[in-house]
Amino acid sequence: METRLSKAVLGINPSPTEATSFLANQMKMDGIDIISFAQGEPDFDTPLNISREAARAIDEGYTRYTDVPGMREVREAVAEKFEKENGIRYRPSEVMVSNGGKQVLYLLFRTICDPGDEVIVPTPCYVSYEEQIKLSGAVPVFAPTKKENHFRLTRKDIEKFITPKTKAVLINSPNNPTGAVCEEKDLREITDLAVTHDIFIVTDEVYEHLLYDGRKHVSIAAFGEDARRNTVTVNSASKTYAMTGWRIGYAGGPEDVISGMITLQGHVSGNVCSVSQKALLEALRGPQDAVSEMRDSYAKRRDLMVEKINSIPGLSCIRPDGAFYCFADIEGLYGKQWREGTLRNDMDAAAFFLKEAHVAVVPGTGFRWGGYVRFVFANSEEDIVKGLDRIGSAVVSKLKG
Ligand SMILES: Cc1ncc(COP(=O)(O)O)c(C=O)c1O
User: Fold this and answer.
1) If residue 326 lies in a helix (H) or strand (E), which one and from where to where?
2) Residue 192 pLDDT > 90
3) Which residues pair with 96 in a beta bridge?
4) DSSP assignment, residue 138?
5) For the sheet containing 372-376, what is the strand order?
6) How far is the CA of 258 from the centre of ligand 1 (A)?
7) Which domain holds residue 14?
8) How far is the CA of 339 from the centre of ligand 1 (A)?
9) Which residue of 98, 171, 206, 234 sits with most ligand 1 atoms within 8 Å of its CB, as the best mutation to test the pocket?
């Protein structure tokens, strides 16, 4: 039958992370005890001070439309945060809030890209960049990072992909799915490159607070006036404050870009949920203890997960410096047989883990990097041990060859 759908929508794929979680949830509903390392979200509840402020906002009647860019006091709090934590001075007119980091990114690509423009996306990469860039009419150009460099992005990785059509380069540090964190030296070199070629830097800093072993986050827009003019800083409450369900993110950048995004948002969603804005206000201005407590807990789980993965024959992973993901090389399982055939790629491995060990992971192909799968360690230590023990025994007892 001839399709009735637009070419734009036909040209994109469903999010592989959501597809895996969906399948795992289906199995759970069928009564199977599934351990999911698939969904990239904190297992903590939103800190109570934040939820209470939101409840108070409802009681006090903050339930109506707000300004499209965000309530004035929320934009002020975002600008304060950028100055205090990132060393970037944005005026409130240079920031906007949106429905999660995801919508910020979508609005941004639509605001800066014309059909045929190119956006350089280092890989492995977060699943939605590609589809959002395509929806804006632009072309994602994938720039692989190097496994030998622990997937840390360098100037060399991207400079060969710059063409007269390049509109922007995307940086995601700490990275989803690898947990790699760029070195400041490399970020400065990439910034010089972008400024020289007058291309935008889209810096997705949603994992900025999830850094381990004493590492400090560095924001590109703080490097100076040239950097600031070319950079849009994207962030969100989701990962830092365990607020994935509240759908609240924000951006800081040059006023023309931010105002374009606001105009677009006005016709896409209008304002962002008023209650979530009040929650963000409390998240940014209230006590920050929960952030470091969660980080300390993730650090322990990271060490546990890395150790467990590396003890399974055929699997190996690097210790990630940030975020809450272990990106594991599973090519050592290739060629082995199980009841559904031969393991030939990361999708087969993920299917094997799900069906034989009842553990859900996301295949690396979803992040444009085959031969790997992503494990989320925002799970209890108990589940990390149980899930990886199950994979270990499935690998030993259910694979032949
Ligand atoms: C790298 C990265 N950017 C952005 C997002 C979007 O997060 P949210 O829309 O919940 O703010 C995610 C979510 O997983 C992510 O991993």
Assistant:
1) strand 325-329
2) yes
3) 251
4) -
5) 316-317, 325-329, 372-376, 362-363
6) 19
7) 7-45+290-396
8) 36
9) 206
Taking the whole predicted model, whether its pTM rises above 0.90 is answered as yes
What is the predicted pLDDT for the residue at 363?
95
pLDDT, tens digit, 9 for 90 and up, residues 305-319: 999 999 999 999 999
Give the phi and the psi of residue 326 in degrees, each rounded to 5: -110, 125
Q: Alpha carbon of 263 to those of 60, 78, 200, 258: distances in Å?
A: 29, 19, 19, 9
Task: Report the alpha-carbon distance of residue 401 to residue 397 in Å, rounded.
Answer: 11
Atom of ligand 1 nearest to the CA of 105: 4
Ligand 1, closest atom to CA 237?
11
Task: Examine the domain organization and report whether 40 and 56 are in the same domain.
Answer: no
Residue type, 37: F
Q: What is the pLDDT of residue 1?
A: 63
| Six-digit token string for 48 | 């109570």
- CA distances 325 to 244, 279, 391, Å, are 16, 26, 17
Give 195's contacts (C-beta < 8 A, 6+ positions apart): 226, 227, 230
> Which pair of tokens denotes residue 187?
């970020």
State the closest ligand 1 atom to the C-alpha of 126, by its place in the atom list counted from 1: 1
Residues with CB under 6 A from ligand 1: 40, 100-102, 126, 172, 176, 204, 206, 236, 238, 244, 249
Residue 216 has pLDDT above 80, yes or no: yes
Our mutation pick for probing the ligand 1 site, out of 20, 98, 130, 236, counting the most ligand atoms within 8 A of Cβ, is: 236
Residue 268 and residue 294 in one domain = no
The reply to whether 211 and 320 lie within a common domain is no
Q: What sign has the CA pseudo-torsion 82, 232, 140, 159? A: negative
- Claim to verify: residue 203 and residue 165 sit in the same structural domain: yes
- Closest ligand 1 atom, residue 103 Cα: 9
Atom of ligand 1 nearest to the CA of 204: 3
Mutate to test the pocket of ligand 1, among 20, 109, 126 (most ligand atoms within 8 A of CB): 126
Q: Model confidence at 21, in pLDDT bands (50, 70, 90)?
A: confident
Q: Please say which residue of 232, 253, 285 terminates a domain.
A: 285
In a domain, 61, yes or no: yes
Of 28-32, 202-206, 251-255, the range with the lowest mean pLDDT is 28-32
